[in-house]
Automatic annotation (TrEMBL):
Coiled-coil stretches noted in the UniProt entry, renumbered to this chain: none
A Pfam match: adh_short_C2
A GO molecular function held by the record: 3-hydroxybutyrate dehydrogenase activity
E.C. code: 1.1.1.30
GO BP term, pick one: monocarboxylic acid metabolic process
Family per record: Belongs to the short-chain dehydrogenases/reductases (SDR) family.
Gene name linked to the record: bdhA_2
Protein name: D-beta-hydroxybutyrate dehydrogenase
Keyword Oxidoreductase: yes
Entry keywords, A to Z: Oxidoreductase
InterPro entries: NAD(P)-bd_dom_sf (IPR036291), Sc_DH/Rdtase_CS (IPR020904), SDR (IPR050259), SDR_fam (IPR002347)
Top-level division of the source organism's lineage: Bacteria
Protein species of origin: Microbacterium oxydans
PANTHER family noted in UniProt: 3-OXOACYL-(ACYL-CARRIER-PROTEIN) REDUCTASE, 3-OXOACYL-[ACYL-CARRIER-PROTEIN] REDUCTASE FABG
Length: 264
């Protein structure tokens, strides 16, 4: 199977690092013109410069802006132009005891992890429908299904994203536009190494440390190691491609078997 995205424009929110960066890179390597997004213009510019240094022919556009506010989202949309592939990757997470989560925390998680994605879908979907082709991918999490006791607010926002994906897939029914969510499992992104070494013996080399971490703290994982961002990006690239034309309204798992369920 050849994943070929030449001629398509993709916007990947929160793509200056982590899973978003891997997605932006993979889509660009499949031929898409990719809008790279983060809050600061200079960070976005240096990420684009680094990506071009690796491969000069990557077609990248800078789309800096805070997509959680209306003006920021408008600036990002204007920099991107017509969107064929929208990847709502931006998401915040953090641990908090359930009873300490304030009204403001609940609202902030909804605003950043759900409403920002909805706003971009609302802007991009009409054009996709008109052109008869489009892909919307919302990056959810195993926490959408296995609600962590220490991150109920995060779990709530990711469960909501599954509902949003399913609902907009219905809105796009029969138009050539697909809308799906991707449930990412525990992934090796920036900051995770520090987090792991807080919980296991610091003298262990990384490979052993992450296996120990998974054994002790994420025993449900069938993969028994953290997922690499590129492994999430591979699924997103497939779902973004014409090859995935019959997958819509789905929640697709790249969770290393973390969610103990036969049905996705
Ligand atoms: N990491 C995991 O283990 C894991 C597991 C399951 C699901 N996920 C989900 O995967 C997604 C990505 O996670 P990650 O760990 O790769 O994230 P991350 O490393 O924290 O990266 C976040 C990205 O978002 C950008 N960003 C933050 N606030 C922004 C805003 N208001 N507007 C625009 N960009 C903004 C950051 O760029 P700047 O700082 O340059 O603005 C950065 O590029 C999230 O939705 C997360 O919930 C992650």
């Amino acid at each position: 199977m050849l994943i070929e995205l030449t001629g398509r424009t993709a916007l990947v929110t929160g793509s200056t690092q982590g899973i978003g960066l891997a997605i932006a890179t993979t889509l660009a390597d499949a031929g898409a013109r990719v809008a790279v997004n983060g809050r600061a213009g200079d960070t976005v510019a240096s990420v684009i410069a680094a990506l071009r240094e690796e491969h000069a022919d990557r077609d990248l556009v800078a789309a800096p802006g805070d997509v959680t506010d209306v003006a920021g989202a408008d600036a990002v949309l204007a920099a991107t132009g017509d969107i064929d592939i929208l990847v709502n990757n931006l998401g915040i997470f953090g641990a908090m005891p359930a009873l300490d989560i304030t009204d403001d925390d609940w609202r902030r998680y909804f605003d950043v992890n759900v409403l920002a994605a909805v706003r971009l879908i609302r802007s991009a979907l009409p054009g996709m429908k008109e052109r008869g082709w489009g892909r919307v991918l919302n990056i959810a999490s195993d926490s959408a299904v296995v609600i962590p006791a220490e991150m109920i607010h995060y779990g709530m926002s990711k469960t909501a994203l599954l509902a949003v994906s399913r609902g907009f897939a219905k809105d796009a029914a029969g138009t050539g536009v697909t809308v799906n969510s991707v449930l990412a499992g525990p992934t090796h992104t920036g900051g995770v190494e520090d987090f792991v070494y807080e919980l296991v013996d610091r003298s262990l080399p990384w490979d052993e440390a992450q296996r120990e971490f998974m054994r002790l703290h994420r025993p449900q994982s069938l993969l028994q190691r953290l997922i690499e961002p590129e492994e999430i990006a591979n699924m997103v690239a497939y779902l973004s491609s014409p090859l995935a034309s019959a997958t819509t309204g789905a929640a697709v798992r790249v969770d290393g078997g973390y969610i103990d369920s036969i049905v996705p």
